[in-house]
Amino acid sequence: MEKILSGYVGFANxxxxxxxxxxxxxxxxxLMVVGASGLGKSTLINSxxxxxxxxxxxxxxxxxRLPKTTTTxxxxxxxxxxxxxLQLTLVDTPGFGELVDNTECWDPILKYIDxxxxxxxxxxxxxxxxxxxxxxxxxxxxxxxxxxxxxxQLDIDFMKQLHKKVNIVPIIAKAxxxxxxxxxxxxxxxxxxxxxxxxxxxxxxDYDFEDEEDAxxxxxxxxxxxxxxxxxxxxVEQNGKKVRGRSYPWGVVDIENDEHCDFNTLRNxxxxxxxxxxxxxxxxxxxxxxxxxxxxxxLNISDNQLSSRFTGEDFNGGNPMELLERERLDQExxxxxxxxxxxxxxxxxxxxxxxxxxxxxxxxxxRKEAMMEAQEKERQELAERRRRYDEDRKVFEDEKLRSxxxxxxxxxxxxxx
Amino acid sequence: MSEEFDQQFILSQQQCEFLAKTFHKFxxxxxxxxxxxxxxxxxxxxLGNEIRSSExxxxxxKGEGCATEGYIxxxxxxxxxxxxxxxxxxxxxxxxxLQAFVGFDSIQDQLKxxxxxxxFEFNLMVVGESGLGKSTMINTxxRGTVSRQSCIxxxxxxxxxVKINSVCxxxxxxxxxLKLSITDTPGFGDQINNLxxxxxxxxxxxxxxxxxxxxxxxxNRKKYIPDTRIHCCMYFIPPTGHCLRPLDIEFMKKLDKHxxxxxxxAKSDTLTIEERxxxxxxIRDDITHHKIRxxxxxxxxxxxxxxxxxxxxxxxLPFAIIGSDQLHQVNGKKILARKTKWGVIEVxxxxxxxFVNLRNMLIKSRMLDLKETTDKVHYENYxxxxxxxxxxxxDALSQPDN
Lengths: 417, 402
Hints:
The complex is a heterodimer.
Chain A: H1 14-25, E1 27-34, H2 41-49, E2 73-81, E3 84-92, H3 107-125, E4 139-144, H4 153-162, E5 168-172, H5 180-196, H6 212-223, E6 227-228, E7 235-238, E8 241-248, E9 251-254, H7 263-273, H8 275-299, H9 303-308, H10 320-415
Parallel strand pairs in A: 1-3, 1-4, 4-5, 5-6
Antiparallel strand pairs in A: 2-3, 7-8, 8-9
Chain B: H1 2-8, H2 13-25, E1 33-35, H3 37-47, H4 53-66, E2 71-73, H5 74-87, H6 107-118, E3 120-127, H7 134-142, H8 148-151, E4 165-173, E5 176-184, H9 199-217, E6 232-237, H10 246-255, E7 261-265, H11 273-289, H12 304-314, E8 319-320, E9 327-330, E10 333-340, E11 343-346, H13 355-365, H14 367-388, H15 393-397
Parallel strand pairs in B: 3-5, 3-6, 6-7, 7-8
Antiparallel strand pairs in B: 1-2, 4-5, 9-10, 10-11
InterPro entries (chain A): G_SEPTIN_dom, P-loop_NTPase, Septin
Keywords (chain A): Cell cycle, Cell division, Coiled coil, GTP-binding, Nucleotide-binding
Subcellular location (chain A): Cleavage furrow
C-alpha cells in the first residue's frame, strides 16, 4: 500500500549516499581469462583497460621452451577514473590446452575458483571480519578459437565443468579471420552447441530501460553473443585519423568500429553496464550455490533435504554457527590434551637424560680411581726395581774392586820371585 | 667393375689421343707421370665446364688413393677417367663430334607423347586441425571443388578418432591428364587427448609403401605399378603468432622420415606483416632446433641450380597462405578473394599472401621432384627396412636412418 507524502522528506537522497559511500570505498572486480595460447588474450586485456597489464616477456629460444600444464597467475592493478577507484584483479591461465594430452587441464582453474570461494566463506565466518577482500572470480572470459566449425570438445568440457561456478562469457578470438557471413554462421553454430549441451553462460538481464534507445542497444548486445573480438595495442592511421587497430596490406581494422568487431560491445557490457550485475550474480547465485554445498557437506545433510531448505538456518541438525562453536571447543580440548601429553613426554625425556648423565659421571669417577691405583702400583714397582738395580750395582762394583785388587796382588806376587 | 669395363669398352683412338695430349701438357719431361696436384687441372681441361664440384672432389680422392709418391701414372689416370665416363654423360671434351644431323633430339617429343598418353598421378595429403581451411585451400589450389568436404553430401560431425579419407579426381589441362588424389585426415588434433594422433596417418603412409612394394616384388607384376604413395603432406599450422605447438612438433618429427612435409601457416590473414615475419622466424628456429626435415631444404641435392632454387624457396618457408574459392570484383577483374568489412584480401596477390609461391612450388616447378623424392628417398628407406627382414615394421621404422 503506497502512501503519498504530503511534503518533502528527503530520502530521495539515499542513492546519492550509497554512491558516495561506494565511491569512497572503491570497487573491486576480478576477471579471469581462459583460452589456448596465441588467441590474443593478453592483447585484449590490454585493449580493454587501456593499460599495459601484460608485459611482453618476449619469447624463449626453442631449447628453453617447455610445454607446461595449466597454471593460474594472478595480477592486481589499481586504476582510477573520474575519482572512482577500481581494484582490478586479473587471473591468467597460461598453459591451458597447450599440451598434446589435455585431459582435465581445467583442474587448476576449478581449484582456483573454489579456493577463492573458500577464502571468502571462512573470512565471512570469522569473528572479526573487518576487511575481507572480495577476490572471487566475477567473470570468466572464455576464448574460442576461430575455426569456423563450432565448439571443440575441449571447449565443451571446460564450460560444462565451470558454468555452475562462474559467469562464463564466451568470446570469439581473432575475429579478423572471418568475413561477416562466416562470423554470423559461426556464432549461430556456437549458440547451437551451447544449447545442445546445456551450458549456462552469463545471461544479460533485461533491465527496464526508460529510454527506447537503451533497450535497443541492450537487445543488440544480447544478439551479439558470443562476442567476436579483435584486440590491438597499437595505433594505426586510417584515412588520416589515428585509430586503435591492425594494419594489413589490404586494409585497416578499427577495433572500435562496430561493423568490424564486437570489441566496443564487449567493453560496454563488461565495464560500463554490467560489471555490477556480474558481481551480484557471483555473490547471490554462484557463491550461494558453493556455500550451500560446502556447509551441507559439513552437516552431512543429504541432497533432497537440501533442496527444500534454501536459507540454511532452520536445519534440524542445528545452526551451523553452533556447530562451528562446538567444533571449536572440541578442537581446543584436543589441543590442550595434546599439550599435556607433550609436556609429560618432554619431562620423561629430560629425566632419562639426567639419569644417563649421572651414570656416566659415576662411571668416569670409577675409571679415574682405577687409573690412579694402577699408576700407584706402577710407581711402587718401579721403585722396587730401582732398589734392586742399585743393589746389583753395588755388588758389581764391589766385585770389580775386589778383582782389581786381586790382580794387583797377583802381579805383586809375580813380581816378587 | 673397372676391369670388366676395361675389357668391354675400348677407348676409341680419338679419345685416347685426346687424353694423352692433355696428359702430356702437364708432363713436360715425358716421364709418363703427372703430379697429384695437377690431376684436378687435367680433369678440368678435359671435361670442361660440365664437371661438377662434387665429381671433381671424388676424382681427386681417387687420385690420392692410387698415387705413388705424389705422382699418378697415365694408366691410373685413364682408369679414373674411365670410371667417371661410365657413370655420367658429362664427358666434356671427350664427346665425339657428329658430322651431320641425326635426329635423336626428337626423344624429347617421344617422352612427352608417352607421358601424355599415360597421364600423371599426384597424391597429396593435408593434415591439420579442423577449421584451418584445408578444404578451401585444396579447392583454391586446383581451382575446382576437389576437396573431400565438397564431395560429401552432408557436413559430418568431428570424428572421435583420426580417420583417413581420400577422394580421387582426374583433371585435365592442355591435354595433360592429372590423376589427383587428396587424402584428408579429419579428427587430427581435435580431441582433448591427442597423444598418438599421428599413428593412423603414419600407418596409412606405410600401407601405401607396402602396397607398392608388394606389387614390385610380385612375380607377375603389372606393367605400370599404380602409385598410391603419398607424394606430399601439407601440414597446416594454426596462426597463433607464438611458435610451434607440442602437437605440431611431435607430428612433424614422427613423419618427416616417411613423407615430404610442406608446412604452411593457415588463415594467415590474422597476422600483420611484421607478426608474420616474426612468427615464421620462430617456426624456422623451432624446425632447426628439433631437426625436422621439411621439403625442400631437408633433401640434399648435387645440382647447383637446384640448390639455388631451394635457397630461394627457403626464405619463404613456411608459406603463409589464405584460401578462398569465391570470386569477387576487384578493379574490374574477377579474382579469388575474401571480402571483409575492412578490405578485400586477394589470394593471388604476393603482397597479401604467399599462395602463389606455394602453387608454383607445388604444381608448377616441383611436382615431379616431389614424386621423385618420394620414390628415391622415402620409398627406398621403407624398402630397405622391410627387406632387411624385421617382423615388426614399426620397430624398424622407429630407428634412426638417413
